[in-house]
Specification:
Elements: H1 6-12, E1 37-40, E2 43-45, E3 54-59, E4 62-67, E5 77-80, E6 92-94, E7 104-105, E8 126-130, E9 135-138, E10 144-147, E11 152-155, H2 171-180
Antiparallel strand pairs: 1-5, 2-3, 3-4, 6-11, 7-11, 8-9, 9-10
């Protein structure tokens, strides 16, 4: 009798494979669109679910957490508003006010969504081209994205750039790092699985079973070789 393989078990969302709630207690979000003025960084927060420190802003009695820019410190004042032209790191403004080749991060896809792109520690994007109707942003993977000029961004480079330079050293430390965010670790060769746990399991005689998964197979069944987009010569 077969058994649910690990991809299917994780996709089911059971408590075994569910991330701890306290890891994601901080939700990244910008203040409301009409917010304007200078505001103080109340605190820099370490979140296990994020690769960069978060800056706490208290505006109108409500708390907002945004990724911190490099060089930001507690007690520093930053400017927030759709018409802010000061390009000091950490300031939040509309993308239409940003000159070309200025580093930016925490970019909104739609005005008011709170920032969705470029939120990994040490990353940043640049303005490639813009006009009155559209702004083109060059992402970290060298891909251009077209955005509404009213989308808000944070000026500067996101903090936490050197996080990968320090070696992990022990497997135990790596285990706790991955467990905090419910990441699949350690990754194991499929042949080393038991036969009931994976289609390639047991590796009896070390003859790996060749399989091409269907193109529309669900994540749990999409194992093996990738189906080619086409066959034959061009």
């Amino acid at each position: 009798m077969g058994k649910t393989i690990i991809q299917q078990a994780r996709g089911h969302g059971s408590f075994t494979y569910r991330v701890r709630r306290r890891a994601y207690i901080y939700e990244i979000n910008y203040p409301p669109l009409l917010t304007n003025g200078k505001f103080k960084i109340m605190k820099l927060v370490n979140s296990p679910a994020h690769t960069a420190p978060l800056a706490l802003l208290v505006i109108g009695g409500k708390k907002f957490y945004v990724p911190a820019a490099q060089g930001l410190y507690e007690g520093q004042e930053i400017e927030i508003g759709t018409n802010v032209t000061n390009l000091a790191p950490g300031n939040i403004t509309s993308i239409k006010n940003i000159p070309l080749e200025t580093p930016i991060f925490n970019i909104e896809i739609r005005p008011g969504d709170g920032g969705k792109m470029i939120r990994t520690g040490g990353s940043s994007a640049f303005i490639a081209n813009k006009d009155e109707r559209i702004v083109k942003v060059l992402m970290t993977n060298r891909r251009e994205v077209s955005l509404n000029p009213e989308c808000r961004v944070t000026v500067g480079i996101i903090a936490g750039e050197g996080r990968k330079l320090k070696p992990v050293v022990t497997a135990g430390k790596k285990h706790h790092m991955m467990k905090a965010r419910n990441k699949f670790w350690p990754r194991t060769s499929a042949v080393k699985f038991n036969a009931v746990d994976h289609p390639f399991g047991s590796g009896r005689g070390k003859r790996i079973k060749s399989k091409i998964a269907k193109r529309n197979a669900p994540p749990g069944a999409k194992v093996g070789h990738l189906r080619p987009s086409r066959t034959g010569r061009k």
